[in-house]
Amino acid sequence: MNNTITNILIVDDTPANLRLLIGMLRNAGYKVRPANNGERAFLAIKEYLPDLILLDIMMPGMDGYEVCKRLKADEQTRDIPVIFISALNETVDKVKGFSIGGVDFITKPFQVEEVLARIEMHLTLQRVQQQLKSQNVQLQTEIIRRKQLELALSKSKEKLECFMDSATDYFFHFDQNLNLIDINQIALQLLGLDKKEALGKQLTELSPYVQPAERYEQYQEVIRTGKSFSVDDRVIFSQHKEMYQSIKAFKVGDGLGIIATDITEREIVKQTLEEANKMLQSLASLDGLTQIPNRRRFDEHLRHAWQECLYTQQSLVLILADVDYFKYYNDNYGHLAGDIVLKQVAMAIEQAVRRTQDLAARYGGEEFAVILPNTDIKGGLSLAEQIQQEIEQLNISHDFSEVDQYITLSMGVAMFVPDEQLTIEDLIKSADKALYAAKEAGRNRIVTR
Description:
This protein is an alpha/beta fold. Helix content is 48%, strand content 21%. It contains 15 helices and 15 strands. The strands form three sheets. It has a five-stranded parallel sheet with strand order 2-1-3-4-5, sandwiched between helices. A five-stranded antiparallel sheet has the order 7-6-10-9-8. Helix 5 (112-155) runs antiparallel to helix 10 (264-284) and helix 13 crosses helix 14. The protein starts with 6 loop residues before the first strand and ends with a strand.
């Protein structure tokens, strides 16, 4: 359930699709606006920018591809996530959708749970990215403020003392022998000393978080050369207390000035956002239903594998697999049972794929794909046969299949040695043709190309 009111624009020329999507999303707590063609979509966007767009491809006049291109060409709208929803299910259509800036592709007829899961995933990713941008702006503002302060401090000792008493940062001023000659009140509180006790002490006599041992030579170098430095330190007071400080050391007269800023809260927020971003990136790479890599992760891995094999001139194998007569299964056993089958098939395929450089992914609907770098056609065929055995061992009854009494797969296996004349799309088309040939030949079989 969506806890934040989010504005979603649906662009589809089919009234039935609009009614279904509007009802589904409004029940989930989203604010929804419809448009039945590209021109009206841009009028709606001009009136109020949406947080996400569901975009049909086949529309009269301006099709979905053209709408997406225009959105991505406009600085004001280029960051709005666009999810294509279409009856088109060809690989070429999906590749085109991703290449012009779409973040996802949902094939009609769609399942409510899948649509909602994908929308929430992309909205969550967008929110985290905006938080990170906001955090970066705050950090840049803080850096500018500190640089202005440091410039003023370096001009004269008088300005140093003026800022020291009013600032919230910790200030220390040492002579050329690193004896403390001035300090502000907040720094004294940090040390737990009064000013008489602190003045005259050597830097090495002060608390270790003012002068960590590894910094001592760097401080002496600042006095000798006049070259300042800055560093972020994790400071441990005791086993129950720690602190993060941003330390800036610079030359003041013949001596040394140190500014230490408490950045503990900022570091905690930064680490939390980094962990959240890593988790979301991981979730964004997984298919919501089967929990194996999704189409986005497949595309990334295939591009990487292609480049690696292009460089090493090793062969690359792609397997495309399709669950035979899956529509009949869904129609007769129900979508919930169909989802369970897809999960079991995904686990069986992933079980067969053992090398770390290989990848099994959900390609879309009841289609799965396996990428095998540095593998010849014999190796690809062997793995396809292993997948077939894993599926057989599941013993999932399918009384409505026209090829077997159990769930089976048709598979197409293609192998390329990448070169400058070939493309990834050529490999995908070759595997797709092999899969088509397997279906034409009676299904429940493997065809190689």
